[in-house]
Specification:
binds thiamine diphosphate; alpha/beta; single chain; globular; Rossmann fold; five-stranded parallel β-sheet; 7 strands; about 10% strand
């Protein structure tokens, strides 16, 4: 008989972290969407609203000096790992105070100081970057774990298969987090993938695979915690599939009603991760509604401040056009 594992309740500090980061991501994305819808020209933005529990539940299981690699839908990953929203917002405005001095934009936000090794517009590249950070951790024996996020659409890309295979044969300290939000642009997962659970592919790579409700931050944290511990013990990678949903279109210009129904959208909104978390922690008396409301107010003010910071910051000087970017020699 297998003994049932007793799941410890996350510490109060960790619960506060979860609520704080999920609401900060939601506020960042919703405010940004309003700005873009009313004319802010930032190029394509891929909003993370609806998926917050995935990034936050995973990052709650990491240590500050662990790493994450990301995707084109990376704002939530950055905030969950601790990137300051002020330089993030400035980056989206193309300002010199941005994380990448205004030259990267939404799909290149990077902040090594908090372990965020890069948002990435090329599907599957984040998993290859995780092989780099994972291999370095193994060689240097520094105990650092990498969590690598990617979408269910990216899960069929060759580079992702190669990365998961390499991570398994080299027993790298990586937690692969497949965010199955049901659509790759407008392509439904059932059209593109022949199996119900992408986590079942883990067996083919030679690592454990777990499916988790990606709308439940506590559930994501629990499976991530186990996977991170396994990675840190040197036992190798895990594949976690989070079933989740994005509330908005694929990118700022996309109308999701062309390929999904209002009923389906409502189904997921009724299971909203922030609403659910509030019910879970207040229902069990772990945190009070008043302290959660205070976090809401603080995060709203922080996003006001981030927008002001971005608006008031200068653009990069023309003389810096070719600095901080890769310029091939002619
Ligand atoms: C190699 C590559 N192929 C195609 C694209 C174009 N593209 C950008 S996002 C996207 C869909 C990605 O879906 P998924 O991986 O499920 O992530 P999601 O957008 O749902 O978070 C595609 C096809 C790309 N950026 N890179």
């Amino acid at each position: 008989m297998v003994a049932t594992e007793v799941r410890p309740t996350p510490t109060r500090e960790r619960l506060l972290f979860m609520y704080d980061r999920m609401t900060l991501i939601r506020e960042f994305e919703e405010r940004l969407k309003r700005l873009v819808d009313t004319g802010l020209p930032i190029g394509a933005a891929h909003y993370y609203s609806g998926e917050e529990a995935v990034a936050v539940g995973t990052c709650a299981a990491l240590e500050p000096n662990d790493w994450i690699s990301s995707t084109h839908r990376g704002h939530g990953h950055c905030i969950a790992k601790g990137v300051d929203v002020r330089p993030m917002m400035a980056e989206l405005y193309g300002k010199v105070t941005g994380t990448n001095r205004g030259k990267g934009g939404s799909m290149h936000i990077t902040d090594i100081s908090v372990g965020m090794i890069g948002v990435n517009p090329i599907l599957g590249m984040g998993t290859t970057h995780a092989i780099g950070s994972g291999l370095s951790a193994k060689v240097l024996k520094n105990g650092r774990v990498t969590a690598s996020f990617y979408g269910e659409g990216a899960s069929s890309i060759g580079a992702v298969h190669e990365s998961l295979n390499l991570a398994a044969i080299w027993k790298l300290p990586i937690v692969f987090v497949c965010e199955n939000n049901r659509y790759a642009q407008s392509t439904p997962v059932e059209y593109a993938i022949a199996i119900e659970n992408i986590a079942d592919r883990a067996q083919g790579y030679g690592m454990p695979g777990v499916v988790v409700d990606g709308q439940d931050c506590l559930a994501v944290y629990e499976v991530a915690r186990v996977a991170v511990q396994r990675a840190r013990r040197g036992e190798g990678p895990t594949l976690i599939e989070c079933k989740t949903y994005r509330y908005h279109g694929h990118a700022s210009s996309d109308d999701p009603r062309r390929y999904r129904t209002a009923e389906e959208e409502q189904y997921y909104r009724d299971r909203d991760c922030i609403k659910r978390f509030r019910e879970q922690v207040t229902g069990r008396g772990l945190l009070s509604a008043a302290e959660l409301d205070q976090i809401d107010a603080r995060n709203s003010a922080l996003i006001d401040e981030a927008i002001k910071f971005a608006e008031e910051s200068p653009l990069p000087d023309l003389a810096e056009l070719t600095t901080d970017v890769y310029v091939p020699e002619r």
